[in-house]
Amino acid sequence: MKQMKKVLGFSENITEEPIIYHLIADYGVRVNILRASIDPGKQGRMVVEIAGEDSQVSLGLNYLERTGVQAETLAEEIVHLTDRCTSCTSCVPHCPTRALDVDRNTWQVSFDPEKCIVCLSCIDVCIYKAMTLTGTLSEYFTNRQTAADDISA
Ligand code: SF4
Ligand code: SF4
């Protein structure tokens, strides 16, 4: 069994194609769409969790490549800026997957990117801008001024 999160990039000429349908129906890949920004005739992005037998996932990813979908690993898209984090714990109860958690001994808040589903709740909650969205996702899923923007400004 293989399970992974991917960021799928659709060029404007394929956003109306039933690609996800074929990925599920023809390759038996389980697809959980976590976030999507797709407009017909425009570029789109989708964050998905995909799962299936190793061969199903491999064949499914090959299919995506053949259709022109860019499939990138969801890594380091949400970043915990530890130098800004005060471990105030405000974000912890808002994190649906416990990607943000607090050590009950040290009261330090930690972030596990493997558990993150990019719901963006922490970005809304954190007044210190210690959680930020980076990479190609930021231009599709938020028009917020992020901490990364502040730093690069
Ligand atoms: S809300 Fe921000 S400052 Fe507070 S613990 Fe979470 S990331 Fe750190
Ligand atoms: S984006 Fe959502 S899932 Fe990821 S750390 Fe923030 S609150 Fe948790």
Assign the CATH topology of the largest domain: Alpha-Beta Plaits
Give Rg in angstroms.
17 Å
CATH architecture tag of the largest domain? 2-Layer Sandwich
Major β-sheet profile: 4 strands, antiparallel
Order of helices and strands: EHEEHEEEEHEHH
Strand content: 25-35%
Can you count the beta strands? 8
Oligomer: single chain
Distance from N terminus to C terminus (CA atoms, Å) equals: 44 Å
- Which secondary-structure class do the elements indicate? alpha+beta
Name of the CATH class of the largest domain:
Alpha Beta
| Mean pLDDT reading | 85
| Gross geometry | elongated
Give an account of the 3D structure.
The chain has 153 residues and is of the alpha+beta class. It folds into two domains: 2-73, Alpha-Beta Plaits (2-Layer Sandwich); 78-152, Alpha-Beta Plaits (2-Layer Sandwich), CATH 3.30.70. The chain is 25% helix and 27% strand. The protein has five helices and eight strands, in the order βαββαββββαβαα. The chain has helices at residues 19-27, 54-67, 121-125, 137-141, 147-152, and strands at 2-10, 30-37, 44-52, 70-73, 78-80, 100-102, 109-111, 131-133. The strands form three sheets. Strands 2-3-1-4 form a four-stranded antiparallel sheet. It has a two-stranded antiparallel ribbon with strand order 5-8. A two-stranded antiparallel ribbon has the order 6-7. Strand 6 (100-102) and strand 7 (109-111) form a beta hairpin. It is elongated, with a radius of gyration of 17 Å. The relative contact order is 0.18. Mean pLDDT is 85; it is low at 144-153. The protein binds iron/sulfur cluster (2 copies). Residues 85-91, 109, 125-126, 128, 130-131 line the site of one iron/sulfur cluster.
